[in-house]
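Tokenised fold entry reproduced for everyone:
>
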Amino acid sequence: MEEKKGQIGVTTDNIFPIIKKFLYSDHEIFLRELVSNAVDATQKLKTFSSLGEFKGELGDLTIHISVDKDKNTLTISDKGIGMTAEEVDKYLNQIALSSANEFLDKYKDDANSIIGHFGLGFYSSFMVAKQVEVITKSYKDEPAVKWTCDGSPEFTISAADKAERGTDIILHIDDENKNFLEKAEIERLLKKYCRFLPIPIAFGKKTEWKDGKSEETDEDNIINDTTPLWSRKPSELKDEDYKKFYQDLYPFTDEPLFWIHLNVDYPFKLTGILYFPKLKPNVDPHKNKIQLYSNQVFITDSVEGIVPEFLTLLHGVIDSPDIPLNVSRSYLQSDQNVKKISSHITKKVADRLEDIFKNDRPQFEEKWDNLKIFIEYGMLTDEKFYDRAQKFCLLKSTDSKTFTLEEYKTLISSNQTDKDGTLIYLYTNNKEEQYSYINAAKEHGYDVLLLDGQLDVHLASMLESKLEKSRFVRIDSDIIDNIIKKEDIKEAEITDKQKENLDEAFKSQLPVIEKVDFSFDYKPLKENVQPIQITQDEYMRRMKEMAAMQTGMSFYREMPDHYKMVVNTNHPLIKQIMGDLEGKEKEDAASYASDSAIIRQLVDLALLSNNMLKGEALSNFIKRSTDIISK
């Protein structure tokens, strides 16, 4: 054929600088694009063969990737349908864009959208190459063709010497991108983007250890698994298969708790496997462990905004041909197919969890501590998931018993409803540190929940808004008779003068604790109730806890912690102190307290029970206790 020269048909100055500039941060995707094109060409040939449109031998369809560092070339070779001279001219030389100038102006800041919307994946090769050659021979047995372009609009088409069907794309790597001539870099990209492509991809030869050194064999090194686990039928697979695949995806991790095999044909096509990983309690979970594929071609593992927020905690693979291969994250987040897929995955996750709960509740309860962060996160961020999860969300008591929301309501409703008809859910976030408060509640016949997870306080706030006339209160937020008021508690029958003296006496013996304030309250409790209890207001403490995890609540983080010291005026030791202070002036109360081992001891015991006695104050308490015992 005669050599042909011309300009690529795009009616703008030059598309190549735009591709180089705006795709530079993600320029490694060129290899994905070219290998994906090779896979498409190969699969089309297989389709034509099955339909009888191609009657020749398919032969070995392996796609080969090769590097020649001496020539500075990277070559992608396939044995697919190839192209005729007419097709080369049509597909490589005519970027048929109406209103091209407006189009490029609109998308100039989002080159992924340029490639994704208008099939320019081949041109991503010019991000790394100063010249690209395409040598191709069509399955139609027409003469081979060579296309050459140096990254300007000019191209050359000429006859080529190629006997076998298929296409070779030869990239002459430019000086700025020599890293793409390194074997390790190409292996990394192939593993990242092409690990599960449906056509075998060969890069180099396999090696074996021989005579004390590694030597190449004659066998191709196939880098991909053409039939990954998610593409197979669940009925063909065993638990060991799923566990092995998980270890392949995430080496050196614990076994997953459960998994869900997605296999949908209508109204969209979706396959994949999602795993519930075992998370360590109170450790920030790693997001973006879900890999998003389109026809086994890797798209991204940054799935926030594409799948529901709580599902970003899961691990695994989602694959759908209905997800565009080359588009920006903003496009994916607004794409209707992606939204439908996202909703469907949420439903499948809820179905799976409910199924396990119904059919194997002991296993579900056993794994609850690991599962609850997923479920609570879902309930907090997805209204539809909340509606489903009410059935299998569990509450755990300090006795390690678990209940559904409805079961627990039934358990406590008769005894933990206050005089105003509000159901009180008592909870602790540390059953060791708050033992005395829990014990006081149990002496009243009350049950106490253990809410010690990262999201428990957030869930408690949500449940208060969802459950009718219900309130969650931490066990140390007040004295137990005040938390669940069965009747109005009488105020202590002491004068303002007595209160003033008691305040001064107790306050003078408090250690200085940074960003902590104390106030005093006096209640006529039973004689056997502790002389002093320290409580912290539920609302303010909860706001500070939530502020630690949420932006925009810094106001609460900066506020000091406020504690109330509840003094039992019916306790014999408090009565003794009140008697000793009788008739004294305010300024004498502090002097009296400094000489009173009992006052300092009572204050320190209250602080100690709240894990607030530390450093020098704790050391002094121990010495004083020893002195008291030895007398």
User: Anything to note?
Assistant: The longest helix spans residues 336-359. The chain has a mean pLDDT of 85. DSSP finds 23 helices and 22 strands in the chain. The CA atoms of residues 118 and 309 lie 30 Å apart.
